[in-house]
Amino acid sequence: MYGLCVLVGIALSVLLIWIMTKKRKDYSKIHIIDIPLFAAIGAFLGAHLMYGVTQINVLFYILGNFNDFFSSWNRAWELLGELFGGMVFYGGLFGALAGAAIYCKIKKLDFMFYADIYAPAIPLFHAFGRLGCFFAGCCYGIESPWGVIYHNELLPEENGVTRLPIQLIEAGLNLIIMLVLILMSRKKMKKGTLLCSYFIIYAVVRFTDEFFRGDIIRGILFGLSTSQWLSIILFIVGTVMLLKRYVIKKTKDNYGTRVDIGVIPQGYAYNKYSGAITLDQTNEIKYGKIEYNPIDSEHHKDE
Q1: What is the pLDDT of residues 206-243, one digit of tens each?
Q2: Alpha-carbon separation of residue 95 from 18, 38, 233 (angstroms)
Q3: Beta partners for residue 263, in sequence order
């Protein structure tokens, strides 16, 4: 069920991005497909590596007991499974951002521009991931007078205990975040606004619902879980980035995250492979012939 929920989340996320961009002409159809592929690789690696951070005691055991680790292939895989066998959402998020940023750097793309396109799909995918957690019985909530009683042979501490379905609560909150970002996307904003807003809103949600988590596998430091510390960092990063865009005003923003359908902003040309590009980027385009249009007014419609 967890795998099925993930697949449904991916499919709906793709559908959402297609609906939100099908009439836009200011992005590259090629990059809109390639970026998620790099992000998926980064998410897979980041989620497992972050899980390894929460299982640091296993790493210390391996480093102090090489004889046990190398005693057999089965034992080595068993210990590595304990170390990297799980996944942490924040690790997946940071890994996905890193993978997408690397791709954009290589292709000389505006990372924040494309990040805003994908931002509403992140909480949508996450909502179905949490639904999968509910069915799998992981990431469960605290004991509660009402809730769900699990019967899981692999997790005997859950059996017979009524637990708060915090996975379903977070899934619902993620859907609300998605709707907020979709509504925001209909306004003209500076690039990066949707991603920064997601950072801030989700950080508050995650910091709060961690108090209602009943599992301790994610690690605790100074009374706060690993995810709560990461939420604090994410909140600060998102806030600083928004302040730079709207208060300090040091970021350049040529045309925001949204332009009218069929409109090419002033100072840009339209290329069927690369979307709206600045005139000084034309020499860098390697796909086909640039289709120039006279840009002598603030808005020029290209058919």
Answers
A1: 999 999 988 766 667 778 888 899 999 999 999 999 99
A2: 23, 10, 15
A3: 301
